[in-house]
Amino acid sequence: MVVAKASRHMARRAAVQALYQWQLTHQTPQDIEVHYSLDHELEGIDVPYFHELVSEIPLHQHELDDQLIPHLDRDLEDVDPVERAILRIGAYELEFRAEIPYKVVLNETVKLAKTFGAEHGHRYVNAVLDKLASKLRAGEIAAEKSAPPTAV
Questions:
Q1: Within 10 Å of residue 141's Cβ, how many Cβ atoms?
Q2: Which of 8, 14, 125, 137 lies at 20 to 30 Å from 113 by C-alpha?
Q3: Number of folded domains in the chain?
Q4: Could you tell me if residue 146 is inside a domain?
Q5: For the domain that residue 105 is a member of, what is the CATH number?
Q6: Is the torsion defined by CA of 86, 92, 97, 98 positive or negative?
Q7: Is residue 20 part of a domain?
Q8: Distances from the Cα of 129 to the Cαs of 57, 87, 115, 124, in angstroms?
């Protein structure tokens, strides 16, 4: 089970790099995925999930951006491109991957921002996606808050 989590995490890491390239070069997601696959070792990566992120996020870019924009303190184009890619991954998972708990989405995106983003970029990513999660995952958050505490 740990292998699956690591490979999904590695797919997200690879997707950040691929989406960053897509944002800067405006190449097609398919071309970027091919180039990424040729230039990087894909061992340990959940390749189907990497493919999903790299193909679906550009496909739903406008919808995802519309979800993010109300929670930003600046124009989306003024957000660091790495952090913009991470925010889009988080927004995609919050909106389209309901089986991934919102806390996992937040945790994963914060890790990505700490790895690839600016020094305090993880705080910004967390704040924006936490607000978006409150909107998109309100039922999940409410259910979690009303659940009795578990013994450790």
A1: 16
A2: 137
A3: 1
A4: no
A5: 1.10.940.10
A6: positive
A7: yes
A8: 16, 7, 17, 9
**Residue 150: inside a domain, yes or no?**
no
Q: CA-CA distances (angstroms) from residue 80 to 8, 39, 104, 111, 149?
A: 24, 24, 23, 16, 38
Structure tokens at 62: 């406008």
Full residue range of the structural domain in which residue 96 is found:
2-141
Is there a domain that residue 62 lies in?
yes
> What confidence tens digit (pLDDT) does each residue in 13-52 have?
999 999 999 999 989 999 999 888 888 888 889 999 999 9
Question: What pTM did the predictor assign?
Answer: 0.91
The band of 148, judged by pLDDT with boundaries at 50, 70 and 90, is confident
Q: Residue 46 phi/psi, 5° resolution?
A: -75, 90
Closest C-alpha to 55, from 32, 37, 24:
32
- How do residues 70-122 score in pLDDT, each as one tens digit? 999 999 999 999 999 999 999 999 999 999 999 999 999 999 999 998 889 99
Distance CA 150, CA 30 (A): 45
Distance CA 19, CA 44 (A): 19
